[in-house]
Amino acid sequence: MSGGEDDRRQDTDAEPPRDEGGPIPEAGWLGRAISAGGIVFALGIVLAMLILIQEVVLRYFFNSPTTWAHETTIFLSGLAFVYGGLYCVARDSHIRVVLIYDAIPPRARRGLDIAISAVCALSSAMFAYAAWIMVGRAAFTPTGEFRLERSGSAWDPVYPGLTKVFLLAVLTVMAVQFLILTVNYARGKR
């Protein structure tokens, strides 16, 4: 074979290039929805910053701080960080040790992708179950009445209860996303 023929020959085991600007194809429709939802939580970070700037101005220039700014910024930032884990799953941008992964051929990587996604789905489901137990305590009284846990501060918002409910929702969606990834990796779908 000449050099030109070698260049034209395609390696069937080679992985196609991935678009770094969005979710991975294996994430499916759920990954696209998760990726699109990221803007909401990015705007939450911007809103938290604006609240903090307002609080600095009110506190140090007018000597009139608010009672709600600190807890609100923690709440908004916390939601963004929790969602960030789900966002990274859909985009395959989470931190991983690739010492072995990068050294093996693409077919073996596919097997690792299947195994890793299955283990992560199981782990996410178990964490979602633990979050369900936590939400049971944070959202319901012992008599079964719905009442979200409050912060206990002077303002006393329901942010702790809402955060726990949000964590349960994100972990549940994360388990489903990992199941979709497992199936699509096993099918070889891109």
Layout of secondary structure:
Blueprint: H1 3-8, H2 28-60, H3 69-91, H4 106-139, H5 159-187
Helix pairs in contact: 2-3, 3-5, 4-5
What descriptive keywords fit this protein?
mainly alpha, 5 helices, 190 residues
The run of helices and strands is HHHHH
Number of strands: 0
Low-confidence runs of at least 5 consecutive residues: 4-13
**What is the strand content?**
under 5%
Span between termini: 31 Å
Anisotropy-based shape: globular
Rg, nearest Å: 22 Å
Structural class: mainly alpha
Largest sheet: none
Integer average pLDDT = 89
What percent of residues adopt helix (DSSP H or I)? 55-70%
Q: How many domains in all?
A: 1
Q: Give the helix tally.
A: 5
Description:
By secondary structure, the protein is mainly α. It has one domain (22-187). 66% of the residues lie in helices and 0% in strands. It has five helices and no strands. The chain has helices at residues 3-8, 28-60, 69-91, 106-139, 159-187. The chain is globular, with a radius of gyration of 22 Å. Residues 1-21 have a biased composition (Basic and acidic residues). Its main location: membrane. Residues 49-179 form the Tripartite ATP-independent periplasmic transporters DctQ component domain.
